[in-house]
Amino acid sequence: MNKNVISLSLFCLSFSAVAQEADLERITVTGDFRQATLDQLSTSASVVGEARLASRQADHIDSMLNIAPNVNFSTGASRGRFIQIRGIGERSQFAEPINPSVSFLVDEFDFSGLAAAGVLFDTQQVEVYRGPQATLFGTGALAGAVKVVSRQPAADPSGYALFRLGNKDTYRIEAAHGDSITENVNYRAAVMQNKSDGFVNNTYLNREDTDNIDESAARLAVNWDVSADSSLAINYRWYDIDNGYDVFSLENNRNTRSDAPGYDTQRTNAVSLKSQTQTYAGDLAVILTHASHDIAYGYDEDWTYPEFHPETYVSVDSYFRDVATSTAEIRFTSSPQAALFSGRTQWLVGAFYKESEEDLLRQYTYLESPFNSTYQPTTKAVYFDTQTQLSEGLSLLAGVRIENYAFDYVDSDGIENAYDSDMTGGKLALNYVQGRHFWYGSISRGYKGAGINPDSRLPTGQRFYDAEFNWNYEVGYKGHVFTPDLTLRAAVFHMDREDTQISDYQIVKREDGSEGFIDIIGNAQIGTNRGIELELGWQATQVWQLQGSLGYLDATFESYTNAKGEQVDKREQAQAPSYTANIFSELWVAPDWVWRVDVDYKDSFRFSDGNALASPSTTLVNSEISWLLDAWTATLWVNNAFDRTYYTRGFSFENDPRQWDGIAESYYQLGDGRQYGITVKYQF
């Protein structure tokens, strides 16, 4: 642990916090079954509010994930849409099927595995839940969950318009408005467009926009109070993401030579309906959603052009997906009158159904014909949750979810497979409250379904992998320490993973001398993830607030036979930095001027379970100064102020035709360089 980490850790322990408010009790979360505040959750969680998101000029969830301790992400695409929590999560996606380890939700929509839809607009807050969340979200939440919460319709008229201008031909236009239509019907509508040329210069095509960002989105929400006891909410979301993907160069810089730059696009239409009815016995909620996604992802595999080396390979790899997902959930929450055991036990019961169809078309230079597959996963679950007041300050939470996970898979290589299994998870937690102090201890169990490796070149023994289970043991504290101006959230956890799913690969040598990848998921017998998460906040003076976070993680797997047939006794898990930290300072230098500084730290971590290539430790500094005048806010901002070079994905293989000598080279996807600009917002 170097001096920089020690200094950063001490600073975090002295001042920090992820919570936007100094008083934890003001932060309401939406991802729990019951409406609760952050200090009432028996789990380690972070909530990033609207003002904090704005201070980072956050366009996408990858812009804010570094705030939360023990959270990481990888790109391998135009955005950092592959999330890891406590070292567990996916790092890329090529062929189906893939089962997410981190649930990703936007309001009522389950977009797990589709986090390109994580663009942020008209956002109230982003919630990050660490550790298994099986009772709440089922098989997609082995590691945790991320939820984006939008602003909801209200009777009082409100809205805003925002314009941002930055270098790299960057601009963002965003607007939202809400009001009442009738006495019982309210609406809120929002639109957004976000564009940037990106940081890549394609020297072959003489273009600076081959790794561009071009994202548009809109939403419409309508809430209807049907009667005094019932309500109906309808939400529609639309996304049009048309991003480029041209990031790798033979020299590991921002100058590429691709003659066929890649793309990362997604078009989504999604609608949800939620009805709530209050009865004497409790509240009945019914939630229905449907979403269709048209996704295209492709890249120039050789990273060059034919004339660069006429005797070597020219290859393009493209994936086209049509994904349709429907969900249905019914949930009944007891009222005080229906509480059990003399009113001491509140209870909740629910059922959940989800079906998807994912049709894949892969067009690849080295395939004799296009590859097609159809993957149809289905989830059926029932769950039960209780909260029992044992004494004045002591309560017991118990939840269980029984889930049937099944899928059918068929592809053009003649591979067919059907899977059907029941899995059980849940949580048991003991909470103690004394004034503004909250302690908890919990045991939770998560799970993740089995799957198939579709590449027909694999032997039968590597074709299938088993389901994974995760036991999480955790103790934590939330509340004030020393003074009312200093708040703390702390958690210590130990996770035991059974049949740990490992993302591995094989490299195959082709006749033309080039190398190709076969992605493989296998199982290690043992996985251990343990660590500490701290979030503190200090209102130092009336005009100066300090926030931040610190995460420590020790994540390893054992007893694994890799794709090469080698025995791995013990190894660090990929995408699992030992230390993550964030510091945030907000200083009002005058009544209408505020200066903010945001610092992210991430320790070194391995990119892959299959090789030792690692990202070096990284410290990024963002800053802004804002001027507030009545309804107007003008902000001068800079992200990555010191223009640090950092990496968001890495590979080790031969891809330079000038050096095909049997020695693997290291290649990296670079994170964004320095970006600066001005943002103007008008609220009405």
TrEMBL record:
It is found in: Cell outer membrane. It comes from the Bacteria. InterPro entries: Beta-barrel_TonB_sf (IPR036942), Plug_dom (IPR012910), TonB-dep_rcpt-like (IPR039426), TonB_rcpt_CS (IPR010917). Keywords: Cell outer membrane, Ion transport, Iron, Iron transport, Membrane, Receptor, Signal, TonB box, Transmembrane, Transmembrane beta strand, Transport. One of its GO terms (cellular component) is cell outer membrane. GO terms for biological process: iron ion transport. A motif (TonB C-terminal box) lies at residues 667-684. Residues 40-145 form the TonB-dependent receptor plug domain. Residues 1-19 form the signal peptide. Its main location: membrane. The keyword Transport applies. It holds the Pfam family Plug. The keyword Signal applies. Belongs to the TonB-dependent receptor family. This is TonB-dependent receptor.
